[in-house]
Amino acid sequence: MAAFVAATALGADAIEFDVHATADGQLVVVHDYDLARTTSGTGLVHERDLAYVRTLSAGRWYGEQFEAERVPFLAEVLELEDVDFELEVKGLPTADLVSGVADAVRSARVAERVELTGHHQVALVALRERLPECRLGLFAPAGAPWMTNHLYQQIVTQTALCGGFDTVHVPAALIAKIDVERLHASGLRLHAADPSTADELVEAIARSDQLTTDDPAEALRLRSESPRREGGAGS
User: Fold this and answer.
1) How many domains are contained in the chain?
2) Separation between Cα atoms, residue 28 and residue 61, nearest integer Å
3) What local confidence, expressed as pLDDT, does residue 234 receive?
């Protein structure tokens, strides 16, 4: 939660996070399936109950001053105001997870501020039926070396349209393969995922509709200085 609060204080438009269900069906926000890397615990999230997960420090790995940070409930995160949410559906893709996410978003009354993403495309399509007000983001399929940019864009676009997605999430290093105007003409938005260099971040800001980054302060600074580039979508 400290990271989310810090990002919104900087002026971030949205925050991204991953959702898992615990063994007793409670929805929590944590990145990995395994608790070991980012918490003081061990084991798979979906094999641990909430009582155990909530005893863990979710901040000790980052610094002693964050020792008291706990793995938050999804409901806690959705209480944040004046920010949109990219909610990645992770965990095991069960019917209970789909129902739990839908119930949490409805209870918080934030559907219009949520973009649902994840690799569990069947779960996302099921959520589209339950949460039609939410946007749906497609993690773009990988492009093979033999694919032309034109073919790659066709595959990405038609996959998104077939599944009823609103946004295509493309690795920032690959957005040069995308004709943004043609994508927009299909009714889709471009998300540049995780630029890893300064040049990629500048290109993402200039050409995409939205992006994710580990350095929101730098992204916001560059966005304030960046003119719209011809053929790009702005930010």
Assistant:
1) 2
2) 18
3) 33
At 42, which CATH number? 3.20.20.190
- CA distances 139 to 153, 159, 187, Å, are 13, 10, 16
In contact, 30 and 58? CB cutoff 8 Å? yes
In the block, which residue shows the tokens 């040049």?
199
Tell me which amino acid residue 105 is.
V
Regions of the chain short of the pLDDT cut 50: 229-235
Pick the closest to residue 187 from 164, 171, 170, 206 (CA basis).
164
Q: Look at residues 87, 102, 136 and tell me which one is the last residue of a structural domain.
A: 136
User: Rounded to 5 degrees, what angle do the CA atoms 232, 180, 147 make?
Assistant: 130
Q: Residue 158: CB partners within 8 Å, gap ≥ 6?
A: none
CA distance 74 to 76: 5
What pTM, to 2 d.p., does this model score?
A: 0.92
- State whether 123 and 183 are in the same domain: no
Token pair belonging to 167:
């946004």
Q: Are residues 19 and 121 in the same domain?
A: yes
Identify the pLDDT of residue 227.
62
Residues spanned by the domain of 66: 1-136
- In the chain, how many H helices and how many E strands? 9, 8
Question: In angstroms, rounded to a whole number, what is the distance separating the alpha carbons of residues 49 and 56?
Answer: 12
